[in-house]
Sequence to fold (69 residues):
Amino acid sequence: MNASKLMKVTYFDPKSDIRLLCYADTVVWDTKPAPTLIALRFGGYPERVQGLADAIYGGATIEIEDDTI
Fold:
């Protein structure tokens, strides 16, 4: 079985000094007409997952770090 490579997903709000960190194993992009996040499967502590999901649904900017590049 191959080991899964997890990607770090971070949300940071400097105004409120809030940082949320989760890890994703699946990210799906649509590249046309502009890169758009279609799906993101992430996990972690329930409070962080809920907070990150709320931030994404609210239109927040997130950062996804992938070590494959």
In short: The chain has one domain: 7-65. The mean pLDDT is 89. The beta strands are 7-13, 18-30, 36-43, 63-65.
